[in-house]
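Per your request, structure below.
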């Protein structure tokens, strides 16, 4: 059963899309379903697509999917390269995530390409779409190149 957001929690997330994104990835790593869901808009049209997965619609369905994923602990995903398109009431962040995955051969670094969409709601900025796809080896090369400086 989803818990309701208190006024204090809503106020804590009224900053920027970057604040919500930081809180989202911290909640992923810690495996905190409540903190993760505090980042999401409580909308029937909110959507989440995990790599290779179906489209999940609505806060309850999204919550259930992450609860299932958190049964073995948090997800070690770190945003490594973010491109932003921000406006007054919405923001789209294209994110290259570095994800640590434990396999039978040990710890492996994988890459995921995600698009996070934020809307400014009455409760402040909230995540309304997280669409993640498996990354390719080319994405690792983007990280290895480092930032480009124009001077």
């Amino acid at each position: 059963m989803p818990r309701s957001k208190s006024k204090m929690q809503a106020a804590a997330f009224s900053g920027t899309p970057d604040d919500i994104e930081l809180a989202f990835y911290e909640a992923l790593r810690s495996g905190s379903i409540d903190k993760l869901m505090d980042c999401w808009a409580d909308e029937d049209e909110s959507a989440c697509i995990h790599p290779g997965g179906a489209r999940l619609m609505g806060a309850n369905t999204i919550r259930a999917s992450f609860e299932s994923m958190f049964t073995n602990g948090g997800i070690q995903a770190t945003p490594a390269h973010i491109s932003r398109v921000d406006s007054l009431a919405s923001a789209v962040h294209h994110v290259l995530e570095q994800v640590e995955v434990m396999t039978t051969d040990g710890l492996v670094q994988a890459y995921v390409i995600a698009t996070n969409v934020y809307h400014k709601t009455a409760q402040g900025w909230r995540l309304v779409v997280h669409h993640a796809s498996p990354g390719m080896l080319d994405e690792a090369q983007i990280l290895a190149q480092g930032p480009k400086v124009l001077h």
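Helices lie at 7-12, 17-30, 33-38, 59-69, 137-145.

Regards,
D.
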